[in-house]
Structures are given as structure tokens and as C-alpha cells.
């Protein structure tokens, strides 16, 4: 299958440290911020694969790290 997508994408992240990609020609949606990585869809997704190791939202990771009351 041939990939004809010539769009340049940016890696974006939200406050829960969840990652996605977004076309650079479009305004980043509210609640997301762009990180310093742009490129093809494949390049951006490869970056996300390398950095997004724990898929749990930040709030869940924090809640699970809190000591439980006994």
C-alpha cells in the first residue's frame, strides 16, 4: 500500500501526559501543547513509541503512587 500523505505533523501532549499527532498547519487544540518534534506521520509516531512508555494518565499514576490509608 502506497503512502501519499505529505502532511507534516507535530507531536502534541496534554496535561495528562497523553501523546498524539497533529497537522502543523492547524492550530493545536485547547488542552494540548506541541513538543519539539515534527515530521512525517511515521516519524512522529515513532517518537511517541519511544517516549510514551506508561500509557496511564498522569492523574492515575499520581493516585496510584499515593500511600493508602490503613
TrEMBL record:
Recorded superkingdom: Bacteria
Species: Actinoplanes sandaracinus
Gene3D superfamilies reported for this sequence: Structural Genomics, Unknown Function 30-nov-00 1gh9 Mol_id (3.90.820.10)
**What positions does the domain MbtH-like occupy?**
3-50
Q: What is this protein called?
A: MbtH family protein
| Lineage of producing organism | Bacteria, Bacillati, Actinomycetota, Actinomycetes, Micromonosporales
